[in-house]
Amino acid sequence: MQITNRIHFRNLRGDIFGGVTAAVIALPMALAFGVASGAGAASGLWGAVLVGFFAALFGGTPTLISEPTGPMTVVMTAVIAHLTAANPENGMAMAFTVVMMAGVIQIILGSLRLGKYVTLMPYTVISGFMSGIGIILIILQLGPFLGQASPKGGVVGTVQNLPQLLSNINFGEAGLGILTLLILFLMPSKLKRIVPPQLVALVAGTVLALFLFPEPEAIRRIGEIPTGLPSLQVPTFTASEFQTMLIDALVLGMLGCIDALLTSVVADSLTRTQHNSDKELIGQGLGNLASGLFGGIAGAGATMGTVVNIQAGGRTAVSGLTRAFILLVVVLGAASLTATIPMAVLAGIALKVGINIIDWDFLKRAHKVSLKAAMIMYGVILLTVFVDLIVAVGVGVFVANILTIERLSKLQAQDVKTITDADDQILMSDQEKELLDLANGRVLLFHLSGPMIFGVSKAIARQQVAMEDHDVLIL
Q1: pLDDT tens, 359-370?
Q2: I need a labelling partner for 171 at 20 to 30 A (CA). Which of 106, 336, 420, 466 fits?
Q3: What value does the CA radius of gyration of the chain take, rounded to a whole number of Å?
Q4: What is the pTM of this model?
């Protein structure tokens, strides 16, 4: 297996243009996700640089753009919140260690060639937890969007404090957030092809804020972002803390696998190519391992960046590497230019991402497809938002599999037939029919066809009374 991704320079112009375009989109998204996670804007930028670089270099999808995404940010936010609450001194370093551990898990999954199994999950479950993640991202951005700090307690804390948030709205910041959403929703499609709406919203909101609120303390802004390489910190933690970190890493790693491979499928459909799932997981793992080492948040394949890259002409990993180098220049030398960006603008960008993550199409038609499928999806959404992602996925997969087994059992039970005389529905030779007629009802023939699962045993057991009335049973 080739170590690096598909790299050649026959499409250099298209790859460079695709990389530049993807970098323009990645900048506001990385800042927004970094701030939303609680790690800071610099961590979002480092995540965009390192995950994007290593996934492009060693991954298995040439056109995939990898960076912090909405789903990964939601989990990262929860990881940072509970680790820093439990251990204020080492919590942030522990959170970045979780990112590294998630990367190692992804590398192991890819090395064991388990990539093709990662996305073998019922669509109702995938749709449910993605929609749940979108709702979480929206709820968590309500505080900054309204000009206030995010309440403690995550989703539940924000919902409980919603009356207080609404009664203490900072109308200046809320106005900037609304302006951001209006630009993102209403910007003409023709203009979107020329310049990303996220960048337009970021620049417009920042410039307007500088005119309306020239005083630095008038509204909440990002503030100074440290330039240069981050300092390394080795965390210390107990065995019980390590267990918590391992569970967090499993969630983050598995979500990253699903997020990346689903985006790889999108890239395949646009480029008519075939990605390498196992290699992609190794590339994603190396990216998250490097990101956590340098204080970056976790990332995965980003659908928006990938689609824009392909539409702009990107066809090889050179586009992803170009994007990473452009963002690296921003991190090392131009990060100070972002200090005046209002937090409400970033909240508006992240809130729009949350809206996009929700699977609106399936929500509209789920009840038409199947009532049981709709109930699974709604249940997974509620569990994701108010309980836990692991519980949501575990319960969703379990219930979906039980329903699948029930459906297959009913279908296969139709192929279980008991015969005491020649039956035209069963293919039998003339000799077999003659022997069965000679038995005069003393022989019971059990006819089974096709593959059978354990659920069919109930259909066979129902024939027990018929078995007792015959001298011989033939399967």
Answers
A1: 999 888 887 878
A2: 336
A3: 28
A4: 0.81
